[in-house]
């Protein structure tokens, strides 16, 4: 069936304004008569009294006669006065009644004239049914009623009496004593009753958003009334304003066959074969499923209005739907709603239920129509007081209705007539582009060079005149709309689809050489995801919400591209703009790189500005210079506030305003509230360009299913084609009437027009320069970054090896230069030391692991030796198997930690000597000499000390802090490097911080503590372990220490151990110098004997240099004070010292005095050396006194000559060595058995007196102040502090007792640093 477009002109017959309420003045309260004043009342009394006095008191006949005369006159005057007052009241009542009746008569004439005028106009506005044929033929009257008209969907059903105006009698001021005049009140009431209702008027039924309407009566009568309502509505209301639907069982279809011809029942969005589907179904539930999409859209918009997202008046702008449910004889069935919280009235749906009895009505009815024969009663139940009208139903037969429906069937409202209604149906994108089949694109034609006016100009939809709406991105000087614009649309307005349309239109009509795209979606990413494979796309950026790092990266990428384009124009010879550049490249400089226009679309830019306010400066910069460098900006958002633009609005020359949440938002975009009043259908909007262009449009729909080529009419006319046109849709005729509504929303599957076009464009040309590279991966392996691996003479090595100590650690990202590559940590610059700072679980240990593994895979053990202090977690232990690793010390192994530091310090000292001996002046020279084999003393040319948990040094290894600081200060110049991991920068002393020239930061607990850039540090997320902020303010991803290409963090320890074993197996040379530690059992034969050391006694092994520790008792040490608790080996040491002295000296040179309360030294001293043995305090006191006597003789007396007073000479006799074991036992209970020695301790060295004394650490905090011990300490005695409780405090300067293995202790010597030694074990 062919269709004919109807132009709807401005309405000629305007509906009358609603009659205002009219107040009839109340009749006055008329009095019955007046009583007069007081003088009138007293006059008769005074006359009677005076006459009585004159006749009785005055005894004179003359006065008696005068009194009688006065009496008569008084009586006559009183009667005259009474009658005159009553007559005046009657005259007054008559006069006011005549005036009020005249007022009523005038009002009757006025109301009668208004009634005649109303009747005449009503006959025109609501014509009888036979006149509808003329209405349809009259273009000025057809479908004349608009949605905003007062009589919209107020439809005639017959003629009769109905309320026409509100007439009331004013409030009366009457009371019981002064009632109103009944006659006048009756006249006013009769007037009010006469003109409150109109007679012989068209009876109209309100159908606009009423909800449920019941039509009750015999079936034929109900059908006649329903037919009358439908034909009246169909003739006076356009299908775009009022949609109709029928729920009619199949057995009653004959009564409704005529309605299928009404265009109001056609659903343009659904097809039934080659024609539009009819909204006709056998039942209300089936009808709801058929029009489900329409009902959901209406419910969704109503919910938005309820939430305040749109003004309540917006509901009046939506189209209405009139549903007829023919359930006569059965209980009414409600039309199912998609949202039970949204009623039919809010959805703009009215349902007419045809019922036999009133008891069959639905639960809530807005209007009730009762028909019986030709009589009808209409009750409007929406107010508290129902409004009732009654009369005669219009006669509308089925043939009459079908004839009218067939007249309307081919008619459609023209586009230009829809000034207040949306365009119907989707806008065909292919037709806009002039493409027959989107699956067969002719890119040679589409991408052909475009003229100056057509360049960057694309269709985006149709306006109300069905003409294409063009978006021109060129600048205004080139008669364009751009280069920058703003797009705002509320949820469901079709904003995302419009952006897709713009992007696809540009890509389909411009080759990548002319146009590049950057698509940014702050939330989600579904909008631009289909465009990822387009050759035009320089970046699709999505899911930025709660991703501060990505937001920062977007800013850097766009800012970098702006700078790059400026530099390209400058390098080409200071070219003015991109147009001149293109002309230069096309004519004289074909060698220049292509510089396509860049179209940047940013969806939800408002939230992007909130996340990073610095974007406004970038947008302003693009707004100022984007024209010249070819950058076009389209900012899009759901909501917009004027303050968010912050001056940017001056650069946004074109505005795309779809339906907004509020009128204020519409004014911000368009300077009018029009966008707020747009219909609640996706795709409708306004295009505004300055003040020169303002057009309403509907955007094309590119995400719809691909349905094949556009159908073109054949050249050959095959004649008319006749098809069956059933009442029910053919495609749904086979559906089960009782089928349940599916619980899952059905979606259209298969390829879309967008997908089909993108698939063809994807491989049609080379891609543009990538502005947005993929973000750094969450995990990547070391061999992926710097591989592949190769096995050769250097062992297993990475192919990505560069210079010495340039270590590949991961992937570095420079978004400003659109560049990603390997990240190398260079330990040869900035002092040679690096600090790795990061909070817990940020990836510090992983970075250090990767560093060590990368060193091993890029250097040989001869080039680099690695030593580790693993003070947190134990993550470095797995690396100990590498041939490059000399040792890894854990936190609990304090001895090995200290030994590792000592080993590195020894290497530093050795290098200082080598530099001095060989005249080396740089580390580069050191490497060269070592590689040439001229420095065999060095196992490795360079050393890397890796410390995981630098903060633990201050807390648990305070004694090593100064040593580490020394290595940091001096090591870099001698090829010794420190890489330290720490929780925060303050873990390093301020004086030492400057030694870490290279710093990398992972996620910090407090980003404000960042020493690189606190703003960038904030963007590091806990969800991205291993993400690093480098010194250059760039981000990098640390590679996992794996060589199997599996980016998995599981079981990393075992993987590292396997890698270490593999690397060791492929290396055949020397390994790094191992860290030597003190043995737990030191045997005597490992120490030098009397021949090598004829005077000094070796007592143990020094941890620092792993060299013998020699006791020089007779020279440097003088005395030895040994402190240690039980089982620490102090008694064994006494025996060792005694045995060593005996081996080196004869009995003439040496004698021992042994004080042994526990008798553990019994037999240790040979008889010839034994000068005395005491085992209790009394014997010790006697022995001490005897020795004191001998010592006293060794002191020079007063007669000695000066030349005989040689230092260290006591005249003769052996040296006396006093061995005291467990001295604390001898001094219990305040005893001082060795008190006789006190006077001789200061001059002991001169008289040959030496003490070797042991005591427990327990109680030493008090015992060190015992006179003998204090005297020995003050004389410069050496001391050995072995195992004990730290709680005793500081027993020597800076030295605390601690638990040590047997034989282990700290040696404190005058003029030397404290050293940890392992004493020799001398078996009994």
UniProtKB/TrEMBL annotation:
Please list every transmembrane segment annotated in the UniProt record, as residue ranges.
Answer: 63-84
For binding ATP, which residues are annotated in this chain's numbering? 489-496, 838-845, 1124-1131
| Gene Ontology CC terms | plasma membrane
Q: Which keywords describe this protein according to UniProt?
A: ATP-binding, Cell cycle, Cell division, Cell membrane, Coiled coil, Membrane, Nucleotide-binding, Repeat, Transmembrane, Transmembrane helix
> Which one of the record's GO molecular function terms can you name?
DNA binding
The protein's matches in PANTHER family, at most eight in alphabetical order, are given as: SPORULATION PROTEIN RELATED (PTHR22683), TYPE VII SECRETION SYSTEM PROTEIN ESSC (PTHR22683:SF1)
**Name assigned to this protein:** Cell division protein FtsK
Q: Which organism is it from?
A: Streptomyces natalensis ATCC 27448
């Amino acid at each position: 069936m062919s269709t004919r477009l109807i132009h709807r002109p401005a309405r000629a017959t305007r509906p009358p304004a609603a009659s205002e309420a009219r107040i009839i003045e109340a009749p006055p309260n008329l009095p019955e008569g007046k009583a007069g004043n007081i003088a009138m009342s007293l006059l008769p009394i005074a006359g009677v009294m005076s006459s009585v006095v004159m006749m009785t008191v005055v005894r004179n006949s003359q006065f008696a006669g005068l009194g009688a005369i006065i009496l008569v006159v008084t009586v006559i005057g009183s009667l005259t006065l009474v009658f005159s007052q009553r007559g005046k009241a009657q005259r007054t009542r008559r006069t006011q009644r005549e005036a009020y009746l005249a007022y009523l008569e005038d009002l009757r004439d006025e109301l009668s004239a208004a009634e005649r005028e109303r009747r005449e106009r009503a006959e025109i506005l609501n014509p009888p049914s036979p006149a509808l044929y003329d209405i349809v033929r009259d273009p000025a009257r057809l479908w004349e009623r608009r949605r905003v008209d007062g009589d919209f969907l107020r439809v005639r059903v017959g003629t009769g009496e109905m309320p026409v105006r509100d007439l009331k009698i004013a409030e009366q001021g009457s009371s019981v004593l002064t009632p109103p005049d009944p006659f006048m009140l009756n006249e006013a009431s009769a007037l009010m009753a006469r003109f409150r209702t109109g007679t012989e008027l068209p009876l109209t039924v309100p159908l606009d958003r009423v909800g449920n309407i019941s039509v009750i009566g015999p079936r034929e009568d109900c059908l006649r009334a329903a037919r009358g309502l439908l034909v009246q509505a169909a003739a006076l209301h356009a299908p775009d304003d009022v949609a109709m639907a029928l729920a009619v069982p199949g057995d009653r279809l004959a009564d409704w066959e005529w309605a299928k011809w009404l265009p109001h029942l056609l659903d343009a969005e659904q097809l039934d074969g080659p024609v539009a589907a009819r909204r006709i179904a056998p039942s209300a539930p089936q009808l709801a499923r058929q029009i489900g999409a329409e009902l959901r859209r209406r419910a969704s918009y109503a919910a938005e209005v309820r939430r305040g997202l749109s003004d309540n008046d917006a509901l009046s702008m939506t189209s209405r739907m009139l549903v007829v449910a023919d359930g006569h004889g059965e209980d009414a069935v409600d039309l199912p709603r998609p949202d039970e919280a949204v009623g039919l009235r809010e959805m703009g749906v009215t349902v007419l239920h045809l019922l036999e009895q009133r008891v069959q009505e639905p639960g809530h009815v807005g209007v009730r129509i009762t028909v019986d024969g030709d009589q009808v009663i209409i009750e409007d139940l929406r107010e508290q007081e129902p409004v009732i009208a009654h009369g005669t139903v219009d006669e509308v037969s089925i043939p009459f209705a079908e004839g009218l429906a067939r007249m309307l069937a081919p008619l459609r409202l023209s586009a230009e007539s829809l000034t207040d209604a949306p365009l119907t149906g989707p806008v065909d994108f292919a037709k806009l582009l002039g493409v027959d089949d989107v699956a067969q694109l002719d890119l040679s034609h589409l991408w052909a060079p475009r003229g100056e006016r057509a360049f960057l100009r694309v269709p985006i939809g149709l306006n109300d005149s069905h003409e294409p709406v063009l978006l021109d991105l060129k600048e205004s000087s080139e008669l364009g709309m751009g280069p920058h614009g703003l797009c705002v649309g509320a949820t469901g307005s079709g904003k995302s689809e419009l952006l897709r349309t713009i992007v696809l239109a540009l890509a389909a009509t411009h080759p990548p050489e002319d146009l590049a795209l950057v698509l940014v979606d702050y939330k989600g990413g579904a909008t631009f995801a289909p465009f990822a494979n387009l050759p035009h796309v320089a970046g699709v950026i999505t899911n930025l919400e709660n991703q501060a790092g990505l937001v920062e990266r977007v800013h850097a990428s766009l800012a970098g591209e702006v700078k790059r384009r400026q530099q390209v124009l400058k390098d080409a010879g200071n070219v003015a703009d991109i147009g001149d550049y293109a002309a230069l490249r096309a004519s004289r400089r074909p060698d220049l790189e292509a510089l396509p226009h860049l179209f940047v679309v940013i969806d939800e830019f408002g939230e992007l500005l909130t996340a990073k306010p610095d974007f406004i400066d970038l947008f302003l910069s693009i707004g100022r210079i984007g024209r010249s460098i070819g950058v076009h900006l389209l900012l899009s958002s759901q909501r917009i506030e004027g303050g968010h633009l912050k001056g940017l609005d001056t650069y946004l020359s074109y505005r795309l305003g779809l339906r907004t949440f509020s009128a204020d938002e519409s004014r911000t975009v368009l300077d009018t509230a029009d966008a707020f009043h747009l219909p609640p259908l996706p795709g409708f909007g306004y295009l505004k360009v300055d003040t020169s262009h303002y057009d309403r449009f509907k955007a094309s729909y590119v995400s719809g299913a691909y349905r094949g080529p556009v159908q073109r009419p054949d050249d050959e006319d095959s004649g008319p084609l006749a098809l069956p046109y059933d009442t029910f849709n053919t495609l749904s005729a086979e559906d089960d009437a009782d089928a349940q509504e599916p619980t899952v929303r059905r979606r259209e599957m298969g390829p879309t027009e967008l997908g089909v076009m993108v698939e063809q464009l994807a491989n049609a040309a080379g891609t543009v320069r990538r502005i947005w590279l993929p973000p750094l991966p969450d995990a990547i392996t070391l061999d992926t970054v710097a591989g592949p691996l190769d096995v050769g003479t250097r062992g297993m090595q990475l192919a990505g090896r560069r210079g010495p100590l340039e270590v590949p650690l991961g992937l570095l990202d420079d978004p400003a230069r659109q560049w990603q590559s390997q990240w190398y940590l260079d330990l040869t610059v900035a002092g040679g030391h690096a600090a790795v700072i990061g909070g817990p679980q940020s990836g510090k240990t992983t970075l250090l692991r990767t560093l060590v593994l990368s060193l091993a895979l890029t250097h040989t053990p001869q080039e680099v030796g690695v030593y580790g202090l693993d003070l947190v977690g134990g993550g470095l232990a797995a690396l100990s198997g590498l041939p490059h690793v000399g040792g890894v010390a854990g936190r609990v192994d304090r001895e090995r930690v200290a030994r590792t530091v000592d080993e590195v310090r020894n290497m530093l000292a050795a290098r200082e000597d080598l530099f001095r001996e060989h005249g080396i002046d740089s580390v580069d020279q050191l490497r060269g000499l070592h590689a040439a084999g001229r420095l065999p003393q060095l196992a490795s040319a360079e050393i890397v000390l890796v410390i995981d948990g630098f903060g633990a040094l201050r807390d648990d290894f305070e004694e090593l802090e100064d040593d580490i600081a020394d290595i940091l200060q001096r090591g870099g110049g001698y090829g010794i490097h420190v890489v330290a991991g720490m929780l925060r920068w303050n873990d390093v002393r301020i004086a030492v911080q400057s030694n870490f020239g290279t710093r990398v930061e992972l996620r910090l607990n407090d980003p404000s503590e960042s020493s690189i850039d606190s703003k960038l540090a904030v963007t590091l997320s806990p969800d991205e372990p291993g993400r690093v902020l480098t010194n250059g303010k760039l981000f990098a991803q640390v590679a996992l220490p794996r060589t199997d290409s599996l980016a998995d963090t599981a079981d990393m320890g075992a993987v590292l151990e396997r890698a270490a074993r593999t690397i060791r197996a492929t290396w055949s040379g020397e390994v790094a110098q191992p860290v030597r530690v003190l043995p737990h059992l030191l045997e005597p034969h490992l120490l030098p004997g009397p021949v090598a050391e004829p005077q000094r006694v070796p007592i143990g092994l020094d941890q620092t240099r792993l060299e013998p520790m020699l006791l020089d008792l007779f020279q440097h040490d003088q005395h030895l004070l040994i402190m240690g608790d039980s089982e620490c080996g102090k008694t064994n040491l006494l025996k060792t010292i005694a045995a060593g002295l005996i081996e080196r000296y004869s009995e003439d040179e040496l004698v021992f005095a042994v004080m042994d309360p526990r008798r553990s030294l019994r037999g240790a001293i040979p008889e010839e050396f034994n000068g005395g043995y005491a085992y209790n305090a009394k014997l010790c006191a006697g022995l001490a006194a005897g020795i004191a006597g001998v010592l006293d003789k060794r002191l020079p007396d007063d007669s000695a000559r000066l030349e005989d007073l040689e230092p260290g000479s006591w005249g003769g006799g052996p040296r006396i060595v006093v061995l005291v074991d467990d001295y604390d036992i001898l001094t219990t209970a305040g005893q001082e058995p060795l008190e006789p020695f006190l006077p001789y301790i200061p001059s002991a060295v001169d008289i040959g007196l030496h003490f070797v004394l042991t005591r427990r650490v327990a109680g030493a905090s008090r015992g060190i102040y015992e006179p003998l011990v204090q005297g020995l300490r003050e004389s410069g005695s050496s001391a050995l502090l072995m195992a004990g409780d730290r709680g005793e405090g500081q027993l020597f300067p800076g030295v605390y007792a601690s638990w040590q293995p047997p034989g282990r202790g700290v040696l404190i010597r005058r003029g030397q640093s404290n050293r940890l030694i392992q004493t020799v074990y001398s078996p009994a």
